[in-house]
Amino acid sequence: MPDPDPANTPEQEIAIEQAFVDRVYDRVDVLRADAVGDRDAGYRHLAATVPGAQFERDVFVYRAARRIADLDSQHEGLVFGRLDFDDGRIRHIGRLGVRDEEYRTLLIDWRAPAAAAFYRATAVDRQEVSRRRVIRSFGRSVEEISDDLLNEDAAEKLPVIGDGALMAALGRKRTGRMRDIVATIQAEQDAAIRAPGRGATIITGGPGTGKTVVALHRAAYLLYQDRSRYEAAGILVVGPSAVFMKYIGRVLPSLGEETAALYSLGELYAGVEATRQDRPEVAAVKGGTIMLPILRRLIRQTPPEAPSELRIVYRGDVFKLDAADLAAARARVFEKEPRPNLAKTEAGRALLVALWRKVKPVLPDAEPAKFSRDVGSRGEFLTFLDHWWPDLDPAEVLGWGGDARRLAAAAEGHLKREAIDAVAESLRETDFSIPDVALLDELRMLLGVKPQPRGRDRIRSWDGIQEVSTAQDRFYDRPERQARDAFYEDYAHVIVDEAQDLSPMQWRMLSRRGRAAGWTIVGDEAQSSWPRPKESADARRRAVPHGRVHEFHLTKNYRNSKEVFEYAAAWAQPRLRAIDLPEAVRETGVPVEAKTVDPDALLPELAGAVAEALEAVEGTVGVIAPYDRHGELASVVHDDRVTLVGPLESKGLEWDAVIAVDLDAVAEAHGPGVAYVVLTRATQRLKRIDLG
């Protein structure tokens, strides 16, 4: 590269970076062509007829396919940073590492230790960096550069262009999807991203501090550091809602990582995608540990369709077990095996013992072993056993709780009548709520999980002919999440976002997915919607394995303008204890608006506010309102840039402009922490519409 000239114009500096970017892309084109050639050669290797040769071919093709996927996924904005050091060295930072024809470093992967100075160097601790440059591209074309001069003595040698990449990135419009921040990671964020993978990493910080995006970049960093461990066992990323998971869904793919499993709390039970929110008082019951003894009693109840009498003819006499006899037999089964789905053999034995006690006084010469062989093998006995002791599905058992009488029997001594009625009403709904998913998972364990045979997924069959599949086939053709469904329990790392909202039952559910995992736990207690934080904290301590804890606190609010955040903070401070108030780093000059209207005037007022917001911002507009008002408010949401969500779904999301409807009702229903969340979703403009 040419020597730096402090007299260069922005256009000249862009041209210099463009020449380097062109060189990198030319090299990437060569690497991709080589990888395609390797892959195709592997497919043509038909002589691989023995397992060892087939395996070698498989690995060869897989490596080539993976390299192609990496190069393709990182193509956009491949080069985004440059470091100029005091000694004249230059390093370019990018989405992946690239070497030239002589195997010399051309581009440094952002996750590599050599790239750390790009994020951590400051004017106080320069780490020998004179200038840091952020390069913004579209396709292969460099569009913009922005410099930070860290060494004032270098001003005479280095041109300095632009006014700071971070502020430019913060002011960019929102698109409805979270972007990666590889070019603008800040020092305190970088430290959390690069924390060790083992043990527990706790990331805290107020609204807008980048906790979520740091957690996602951490997943990419862990995969880079120890790919064999984290790709083989997997990384689980858990968020609060399906809306949130859609919002963050493209961050990891944009960083070249497709292997992490992303699930909302409503999806962590196979076959269920719950999006319904329970009323707060119902969610507080369902999420509490009070449900554990209730569920244990529920599974011991007689199934609704179970027969109430057993009649058997033996040696000419009729012997009968009535409802009381059967209830006693059921109780004896649970004394031996508390998991119903693993107790069928024990249930058959209990029935035979109960029958033998009827037979022995009548037929004193009968032999117990012969009696058991004879009766236990009869079709009518086995049919009765199947109906009396069926395999139970967690969804079916949870549905029993919709019968208030059954639920009352299970909840006696634990719940008051009004709570029983409210929970039963919720369980009678046709779909599951998000808190129900943790109950289903708990029931899955209480009922007993039968061992499943492991399939040999490396064998495929076409027209009756079996052949070893290639890694290319598995990498591209495998259905989403097939390898690690919602019940997978051997993750190497679990990342939990909005952790302050998790109920104790949800922590129990997550603990099963990460029994031997490292954990990254992200949250802010002030934004919590869970009403009993101590109970949840205790559940979290039991869920996360004991070990080394790494704690990071983020202090800068990059989302909200100062005007928006100072308004939100002033509202929250008298209502929330121990609130964490980060420093907002930018101003827009746009004050927060607040207006009170009569309920009859809400629709026209909201319609006007939406139209005004669409005119004022280039990006997205969020309308956050109480759930019971969504029906009437939906009529004013008719633009693709506008989203209507409930207060709980707004967690973790952001819009350029936000219209908060009836904030007092939100605070009353969900607590001041959730209302605080609502006030901190806007990046540029916030308007409150309250009802008088």
Automatic annotation (TrEMBL):
Pfam families: AAA_19 (PF13245). ATP binds at G205, G206, P207, G208, T209, G210, K211, T212. PROSITE patterns: UVRD_HELICASE_ATP_BIND. GO terms for molecular function: 3'-5' DNA helicase activity; ATP binding; DNA binding; hydrolase activity. It comes from the Bacteria. One of its GO terms (cellular component) is cytosol. Keywords: ATP-binding, Helicase, Hydrolase, Nucleotide-binding. InterPro entries: DNA_helicase_UvrD/REP, P-loop_NTPase, UvrD-like_ATP-bd. Residues 184-561 form the UvrD-like helicase ATP-binding domain. GO terms for biological process: recombinational repair. This is AAA family ATPase. It comes from Glycomyces albidus. The lineage of its organism: Bacteria, Bacillati, Actinomycetota, Actinomycetes, Glycomycetales.
